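thought: fold this chain, then report.
action: predict
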Amino acid sequence: MSPARRASRPVFEIGDAVVKAGRKARTQIPITKLVSGSPISLPVLAVHGRHEGPTIWLNGAIHGDEVNGVEIIRRVLAQLDPRSLHGTVIAVPIVNVPGFLSGDRYLPDRRDLNRSFPGSSRGSLASRIAKIFMTEIVRRCTVGIDLHTGSGHRTNLPQIRANLDDPTTRALADAFGAPLMMHAATRDGSLRQAGTEAGATVLLYEGGEAWRYDETAIVAGTDGVLAVMAALDMVSEAFDRTPPTPYISRRSRWVRARRSGLMQLAVDLGDRVDKGASLGRIHDSFGGRLGQINAPADGMVIGLNLDPSVNQGDALVHIAHNEGNHA
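observation:
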């Protein structure tokens, strides 16, 4: 008599999809309707592994202009085989669908979706989307990775923002292997705050700029997500990567323009700078020098304003302070 076959995992249900173990499926979770009556839905792909393991979510484009996360999720999913996967991955490449369709960071009512969590089924559009995301995605998961880029004309060094004082979160941040790990408190209304309060371990990844693919940020994000999954024993493949030794910071600030004019930067993302070092200059339209941009402290350049036309008070260079605690 042949040995009894091992029982397979139960199916995974999400939206109108019923996903068998070792399979993947796409579904659409209804959000709202346009004025024309056309429906708008949350795009979801579930990869339900054949083997037991954790359930994690990946999301991009909470802000409608953040395209790098969409590409990171595409590349991660392309490398996952549900037949060998341990656990389940819920991927939502575009959360702010209305903003993404209109090319806008925010929703049509100008609300910031990432200040609207955990949401309400009777609130604004932002609040309703947040509520759907919490109910359908977050509350099914133990780990989440929220993928972001810089806003406007700003670009960010690939970085993880998380509660580095929490051992579980710190372990996953270490596994991600971004060039920078920033200890950051949660912000009211953010997905990271709501997810944490719901019991999940949440990493926020920043990299690149809005509406442009940044290959460095995409590769770092893709490798980092897969490395976190390996640390969770969801995937067994040995990914060929040598992550950089992370720079760890607990405080950062933007250096702002003291004069209006045209900016010429003298630094790049990832540069180490000493206090007083030149970060760039500001000139008038005739070439006359109006001012020097200097580093306020030792640290690393983690964000840049790429728009050469600046007004007094504009944020120019983002410095993560060196407090003697980086690896």
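thought: worth noting. The radius of gyration is 21 Å.
final: tokens above.
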